[in-house]
From TrEMBL:
This is NAD-dependent epimerase/dehydratase domain-containing protein. InterPro entries: Epimerase_deHydtase (IPR001509), NAD(P)-bd_dom (IPR016040), NAD(P)-bd_dom_sf (IPR036291). Belongs to the NAD(P)-dependent epimerase/dehydratase family. It comes from the Bacteria. Pfam families: Epimerase, GDP_Man_Dehyd. It comes from Candidatus Roizmanbacteria bacterium CG09_land_8_20_14_0_10_41_9. SUPFAM superfamilies: NAD(P)-binding Rossmann-fold domains.
Amino acid sequence: MLKFTLNYDGWGKVKYIQGNVLDKELISNTIAKFDYIFHLAALLGTSETLENIYSAVESNIIGTLNILEAIKTHKKRGLIITIGGIDWLNPYAITKLAVEKFSLMYAIEYDLDIKVVRGLNTYGPRQKYEPVRKAVPFFTINALKNKPLEIYGNGRQTLDLVYVGDLVQVMLKTMEFKGKIYHIIEAGTGVKTTVNKLAKMIIQLSHSRSRLTYSPMRRGEPDHSTTIGDINTLKEIEYIPSTSLKNGLQKTIEWYQKHYPL
């Protein structure tokens, strides 16, 4: 298992406070000390959260409400990150949809500078391989080991894959924008890629001998799905993700080759 530690460039400027978004007092006291709040905390997983529904609701909804209340109390500015596939019927997607609605409600009803960025299918260096299974790290690690790449369903589901560096730029541009934005900002490329194409690209770029295998769709995910970002939602911040899928995957593969024990 790949273990991530606070040991790469930039962490010297970070103050790490271990806590829980359900600790309302800690959240309030911490937010009071900062000018801008980025909220990315969540209990992850589509099929995984089906076994932890109450925990998903507590962490994702109640935890977010604690953050929104602290932003309101201390009159701070904030940015809330959500996900693509928001209409899927699993606890993760359902709670994230509620997070979007609550965040926009707080922005409008309490006249707060709170913006919502919906990160589409984000990938890149340092993305965890487990326990929650994500396509790019799972395919990459197995391709580098020349193991089969297991695909759920028929692989014709489409994704809008956005490189993590581009998502960061969307977040920063959104933070810098001083006006109010009362709609979801979709951090995507507007380009569709099937799961089959993604897997084949990773095999090719990693010079792998892996083959594709297929399994029934996992619980909580539809058999046929399309996730695509609306780049018109990015017009206020004047930035559109520009890293091509090929270049982004190449950077990602190189990172795993260097940091993952193969």
